[in-house]
Amino acid sequence: MKQAVAALGSVAAPAAAPLPATLPRRRPVLTRRQKAAIIVRLLLKEGTRLRLDELPEAMQVELTHEMGALRMVDKATLNEVVAEFMAEVNELGVSFPGGLEGALCLLDGALSEQNLRKLRKQTGLTVQGDPWEMIARLAPADIAAIIQRESTEIAAVVLSKLPVARSAEVLGKLPGDVARRITYAVSTTGTVDPETVRTIGQAIAAQVADEAPRAFADPAVNRIGAILNSSPAEVRDGVLNGLIEQDAALGAEVRKKIFTFADIPARIDARDIPKVTRAVDQGVLVTALAATAAGESAAAAEFVLANMSQRMAAQLREDIADRGSVKPREAEDAMATIVA
Fold it and tell me: Distance (Å, rounded) from C-alpha 223 to C-alpha 246?
């Protein structure tokens, strides 16, 4: 018995069956859109400010849907996505914006303004970015001229969309009755949907972009006035008289832009004369006053002398008497210095 038991004990025990190996967890197969959503989520979590508004609208919508569909992403998958993203970034040599609009934005400043406008017109891409930013940069007078060509309702939308300070400036450039109608219409814009506002902005910005560029920034009347202001009195008077004969309305507008020594009584407040004379060298002032013999210039000289201290006026009168005759060119230069 003992031998049998011993024999049984000596028999090797059968080997235990091996446990089944643990199958590796399969990582999900992600699309490129899902990977992009993971990268964006990671960057936002790290506090990075992303300009996603510069992406095409359809891409913004797709990205939002992908971020809404994703739930949990394990660490290994995240590391794999980041590694793939960094590898692509490191391999990137140069990127292009994609699309005609992006190409035109990229070439802005590199092409001539004329060719850039031509390309935009040919492609129909006359407006880049937010049209309302472009409209807000226009001069208040230009915005006022634009909205006067539109309906009252559209004008109200424009004023509502612009910054408050700019809207106030635009209102100041409008006729009173037009400004009142548009202001009242602003109260009815509460139900206008954002897409309509964007469409209005694009239409107005397209009008502005389609306008022919101006060769001169200042209006013609201002330029004529500036030229005549710098011309000798004989030339100035001759040109102005001829202009009035040819076009009375234009001549009157140009005359308003001209400021000569003879215009001092009409254009300068009597209380400001001491300040004006203190800013001018006394020798120049004496020369200008001594040169006035008769007519409007004499009246201007008397106006200047009458509106300063009696002691100063008496001293100037003595200096004028001592100065004697003045050459025409010296007189022109002295008067121009005073009214400059």
Answer: 18
Q: Distance between alpha carbon 288 and the CA centroid of its chain, in Å?
A: 44
CA 47 to chain centre: 30
**More confident of the two residues 15 and 303:** 303
What's the whole-number mean pLDDT along residues 5-23? Answer: 43
Position 180 confidence tier, pLDDT thresholds 50, 70, 90: very high
Tell me the residue type at 181.
Answer: R
Most confident of 17-21, 91-95, 105-109, 157-161: 157-161
Question: How far is Cα 40 from Cα 82, in angstroms, rounded to an integer?
Answer: 11
Can you tell me the distance from the alpha carbon of 160 to that of 172, in angstroms, rounded to the nearest whole number? 15
Indicate if the pLDDT at residue 325 is higher than 60. Answer: yes
261-340 CATH fold = Annexin V; domain 1 (1.10.220)
Beta-carbon contacts of residue 163 (< 8 Å; ≥ 6 apart): 136
* Alpha-carbon span 142 to 164, nearest angstrom: 17
Reported as a single tens digit per residue, the pLDDT across 28-64 is 788 999 999 999 998 888 888 888 887 878 888 999 9
Q: Do domains 130-210 and 261-340 have the same CATH topology?
A: yes
CA distance 115 to 36: 37
- 139 pLDDT exceeds 60? yes
Q: Where are the domains of the chain?
A: 32-85, 100-125, 130-210, 215-258, 261-340
The tokens describing 76, both together, are 């290994």
Q: What is the CATH T-level fold of the domain 215-258, as seen in this structure? A: 1.20.5
Question: Residue 1's pLDDT is what?
Answer: 33
Task: Return the residue matching tokens 């004499």.
Answer: 298
**Domain at 130-210: CATH code:** 1.10.220.30
Burial of residue 260 (CB within 10 Å: 0-12, 13-18, 19+) is buried
